[in-house]
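The methods section describes the discrete structure representation at length, but only in general terms. An entry of this sort, consisting of the sequence and the corresponding backbone structure tokens, reads as follows.
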Amino acid sequence: MSVLSVVLPAYNEELMIAKTCSVLGEVLTDAGISYELVLVNDGSSDRTWEEIEKAGKKDPNILGVSFSRNFGKEAALFAGLAQAKGDAVAVMDCDLQHPPETLVEMYRLWEQGYQVIEGVKSSRGKEGFLHKKCAGFFYGIMSKATGVDMQNASDFKLMDRRAAESILSMPERNMFFRATSSWVGFKTISVSFEVREREAGVSKWSAWSLVKYAFTNIVAFTTVPLQFVTVGGGICFLFSLALAVYSLAQYFTGHAVEGYTTIVIVLLLIGSAIMLSLGIIGYYIAKIYEEVKRRPRYIISRIVRGSEDVSENARNDSV
């Protein structure tokens, strides 16, 4: 019988662990789906890990993975994929904002032969005005830069084992899961869902974290920002050429430019363009440096299946 593994990254979600495990277990059992819940504790500072261990004692289908420190959501996603043993692997948030009933719908589509089932937001739920505008703006930038529609995309998706292994086989340290899971291809279909209200706890995403998330993942997935350097250089060249023609015309007609203000403006413009370009190039070099070091995406400190400690059998990130 086929088994569905559900990967649930958790960071400071002590208030939601028990409810999430209970609801998912009930929904999947009622649907007649054999399941495994893979909860990844991403270095939480609260009692998230203790709650995962407590849930495991109640349900033997729960696999708990704990990082040695906080490595980020992307690392938690890949750790969950690596530890999952199911024939199909789903990824969803631990706060139940991704509806469990939609997970059943995704599984039925997988049984029909689809290999990647994408969860697409029909609404973003209730968010603050600033947060919603920031999210829309940066997801718009990411969509244009990566070539993948990020506006209503989410990490909520279900993949066939073959698709999951294809993602895990990629050697890069910095990977954008949301775009990569679309990039791998396979037979894909989308399912729309409405984002539910968080029942407990608070969102871990701020406007600044969205900025960092956008830029980090754009750099991880595409080289488009490097093209900005070329475009910026071309614009500066055209501006300088126009200014040179204007200055020569003024000189030969006896109306030479007095110069100081113009020179300062040009120097500031070119200097800013150069520094911005160096910043973009430097960021890519930093990411290359991280890749060359070949450090693991994450380090697992403990892993439990049900109430049993199986840390020695953990599949660490060794790619």
About this structure: The chain has a mean pLDDT of 76. Residues 260-293 form the longest helix (34 residues). The chain has two domains: 3-205+295-313, 224-293. Residues 3-205+295-313 form a domain with the Spore Coat Polysaccharide Biosynthesis Protein SpsA; Chain A fold (CATH 3.90.550.10).
